[in-house]
């Protein structure tokens, strides 16, 4: 079309020509594969070491603490650092930590308190990596490529996460938890190596580090979000999205048994359909943004998530018919996934376009901490509600 802007003519093929950004995608894909293997392996490891579901819940909760408490401070520090170096060091710390856990496990020297310490160390490294990876994007990718670049990264990571989840069971079955952990550590080392080859011009300002200036910078970031209405709205969207998705994470087993009358196999159907939906939403979103306004996309995505969660709650009508149960679960999960994929891509792209580069690390860290805070807070409400209300009703309320 003669009237198309330069940005409208861009497609996924153009992202392949962005060599430095493709290195970041490659590193992300490798580490995400390792994360998905580790997610299952670490769950098995925690239960094998502790023999307690309570310990599993405690360690899961502790994994969120650095994101909520540390990341806003990390964002301020990252602003004055070389972003690429922060990302490389974070990968190395995580890789070394996981190797240590695997080694202690194989030597039968592991205990719950070591797992707690290692979990906090890994999550703390991630708290620095996230704002660094966000704020480095404008330095290696032009603004016009944000939509397709973010979508390609998200969708490829999701595909490899699915592959990793499928491979994890095989790896653990044939090589044990220790091998799965070592594979995860290897992916972090590979990610660090690839990220280290990224060519980026960085000239961080050398500032005297003192407590007063540190909190001044942190306050400036918070004030920026508070006064920049669009950025504040992004934070609220992230908070609400994480909150409404809590039942899907916290009540999966009750959903399978109480709503669908099925066993654990339906959870695999749910998980795969959800991730395929997220990947699909990430892929199609840049094209939809050409046809539909951002506001309408946010509204339609919210409606899609609501309809999907509501649809799951009516799984009771499929009891006694396993194929109907699987079909309804897969369809509603895919709808939730594609809606989440669209919404996440919209927020990610518009966040990058809206926030000034000098505030990206601080703003993204506050955004992520705010969104993460919704999970434990809403989990508490859901756990209370589950004692007095059927699971299906809770799903309908959140829908």
- Determine the mean pLDDT: 84
Q: What structural category do the secondary elements indicate?
A: mainly alpha
Query: What kind of oligomer do you see?
Result: single chain
User: How many distinct helices?
Assistant: 15
Order of helices and strands: HHHHHHHHHHHHHHH
Helix content: over 70%
Q: Which blocks of ≥5 consecutive residues have pLDDT under 50?
A: 1-5
Q: Report the portion of residues in β strands.
A: under 5%
Report the strand count: 0
Give the termini distance in whole angstroms. Answer: 40 Å
Largest sheet: none
The outline comes out as globular
Radius of gyration: 21 Å
Any overview of this molecule?
The protein is mainly α. Helices cover 82% and strands 0% of the residues. The chain is built from 15 helices and no strands. Helix 2 (19-50) packs antiparallel against helix 3 (53-79). The longest helix has 51 residues, at 146-196. It is globular, with a radius of gyration of 21 Å. It starts with 11 loop residues before the first helix and ends with a helix. Residues 1-5 have low confidence and may be disordered.
Topology:
Layout: H1 12-15, H2 19-50, H3 53-79, H4 83-106, H5 112-140, H6 146-196, H7 211-227, H8 229-244, H9 246-250, H10 252-259, H11 265-291, H12 294-313, H13 322-354, H14 360-386, H15 391-398
Helix pairs in contact: 2-3, 2-5, 2-6, 3-5, 3-7, 3-14, 4-5, 4-6, 5-14, 6-11, 6-13, 7-8, 8-13, 8-14, 11-13, 12-13, 12-15
């Amino acid at each position: 079309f003669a009237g198309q802007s330069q940005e409208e003519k861009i497609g996924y093929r153009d992202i392949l020509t962005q060599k430095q950004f493709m290195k970041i995608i490659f590193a992300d894909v490798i580490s995400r594969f390792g994360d998905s293997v580790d997610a299952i392996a670490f769950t098995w490891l925690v239960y094998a070491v502790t023999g307690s579901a309570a310990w599993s819940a405690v360690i899961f909760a502790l994994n969120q603490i650095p994101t909520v408490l540390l990341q806003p401070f990390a964002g301020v520090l990252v602003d004055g650092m070389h972003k690429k170096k922060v990302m490389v060091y974070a990968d190395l710390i995580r890789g070394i930590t996981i190797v240590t856990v695997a080694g202690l496990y194989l030597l039968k020297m592991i205990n719950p308190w070591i797992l707690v310490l290692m979990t906090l160390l890994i999550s703390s490294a991630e708290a620095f990596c996230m704002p660094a990876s966000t704020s480095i994007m404008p330095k290696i990718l032009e603004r016009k490529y944000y939509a397709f670049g973010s979508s390609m990264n998200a969708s490829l990571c999701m595909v490899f996460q699915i592959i990793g989840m499928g491979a994890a069971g095989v790896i653990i079955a044939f090589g044990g938890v220790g091998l799965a952990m070592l594979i995860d550590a290897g992916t972090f080392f590979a990610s660090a190596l690839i990220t280290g080859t990224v060519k980026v011009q960085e000239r961080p300002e050398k500032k005297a580090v003192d407590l007063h200036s540190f909190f001044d910078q942190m306050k400036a970031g918070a004030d920026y979000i508070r006064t920049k209405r669009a950025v504040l709205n992004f934070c609220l969207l992230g908070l609400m999205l994480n909150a409404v998705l809590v039942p899907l994470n916290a009540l999966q087993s009750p959903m399978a048994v109480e709503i669908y009358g099925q066993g654990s196999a339906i959870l695999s159907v749910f998980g795969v359909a959800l991730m395929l939906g997220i990947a699909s939403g990430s892929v199609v979103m840049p094209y939809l943004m050409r046809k539909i306004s951002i506001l309408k996309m946010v509204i339609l995505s919210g409606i899609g998530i609501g309809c999907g969660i509501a649809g799951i709650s009516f799984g009771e009508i499929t009891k006694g018919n396993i194929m109907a149960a699987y079909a309804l679960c897969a369809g509603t999960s895919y709808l939730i996934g594609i809606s989440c994929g669209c919404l996440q891509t919209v927020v990610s792209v518009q966040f990058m376009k809206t926030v000034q580069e000098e505030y990206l690390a601080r703003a993204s860290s506050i955004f992520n901490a705010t969104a993460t805070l919704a999970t434990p807070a809403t989990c508490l409400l859901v756990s209370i509600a589950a004692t007095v209300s059927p699971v299906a009703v809770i799903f309908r309320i959140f829908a």
